[in-house]
Amino acid sequence: MMKASLHRPSKAVIDLAAIAFNIRQLSAHLPQKTEKWAVVKANAYGHGAIEVSKHIDPLVDGFCVSNIDEALELRSAGIGKKILVLGVSDLAALPLARKGKVSLTVASLEWLDLALTAEEDLTGLNFHIKIDSGMGRIGFRDSQEAQEAIHRLQAAGAVAEGIFTHFATADEVDHYKFEAQLARFHQILSELDSVPPLVHASNSATSLWHSETVLNAVRLGDIIYGLNPSGTVLELPYEFKPALSLVSELVHVKEVEAGADVGYGATYTSKSQEWIGTIPLGYADGWTRDMQGFDVLIDGQRCPIVGRVSMDQITVRLPQAYPLGTPVVLIGNSGAETITVTDVAEKLGTINYEVVCLISDRVPRVYKD
Predict the structure, then answer these.
(1) Which residues span the domain enclosing 217?
(2) How many domains does the structure of the chain reveal?
C-alpha cells in the first residue's frame, strides 16, 4: 500500500451525494421488496469502501465484497448490515466470518470438503451457493452437486442463506448468451428440492437492461458510481451522476524552443515555440504510460499530454502561459468540456471499471456530500 500523498495537489474527489442519488434512481425502478446489495469490493471501485459504505448504509440491505479482509474492514468501520464475500475464501476465513457475521460463497464440493475438514461445525455461518450458469469462472454447473452442498451445509449446522449466478454478456447488444445463462440458472433452481431464501442473478447491467433477471435481490456495482457498465454500447435508461473526479494543478510551466524534446525516450519534439506544463501525477498513480496523446482540461480547454507519462509526472502542451497552481482536470468538467471515466477507458482500450480501480492509494480521496 502506497502512502497517500496528502500534500500534493493531485486528488480524487468523490461525490457521495451522487452515489446516493444513483442508488435512489435504481431503487425507483426495482420491485419494492427486492433487496439491494451494494458492491463495494476493490475499495468501492476505487472510490473508498468505508466512506462510501457508511454514506449509503441507510439505502441498501447489504454489501458485497471480494474477500474476507474487505468484509472485516467494513465491520471494523461499524458497518453492521449483511456482507457477502463473492469469491472463494481461504479456509482461514471460516472463524473470521463466524466472528464477523459475514456470509461466504460455496462454489464447489471440493472446497466444502476442505472447509468441513478444517471446521466440522459450521454453526452460525451463512453461505451463498454460487452457480456457474455459463460464466466459466467459479460455481456449481449442475443441480445435483449444488443440492448436495446445501444438504451438507445444513447437516453441519450452517445456513444456506442464498444462491446466485453471474452473467458474462449482460452489457452487450446480443442477448443469445445471456438468455442461455438465465435459462440454465432457472433450470438448476427448478431441480433443487430446497432453494435458499435469497436468490440473486442481477448485477448493474441486468438491473438496468434485463428486468426479468431481478429476483429477490440485486448486486449493484459499477452503476452506483455513475458508470455505464456497457461503456458506450448501451444507453443508460435514466439519469445517473458520475461520482469521481480526478484533479490536480500545474506545478511547473516553461516555454521551449522549436525542436525541443520532452520526456523519456524523447518521444515528443516541439514543432515551434510552445508552453509546456507539468502535472504531479503519473503511472504510479494509475495514469498509465499509454495515456500519452490523451488530453487534460485546463481553463476549459483540452491540452494534449506530450512526452511519455512518467512515474510521478506528466507534461502537457498549453495554449498559453498559466500561473503555477492553475487547476487541472483529468476526469471531470472544466468549463464546457468534460472527460469521463469511459473516455479514458476507450483511450486505454479497456473498461471504466479498470480505470477507477487503477487509481492508486497514493492519490488521496477527498469526499464531498
Answers:
(1) 16-225
(2) 2
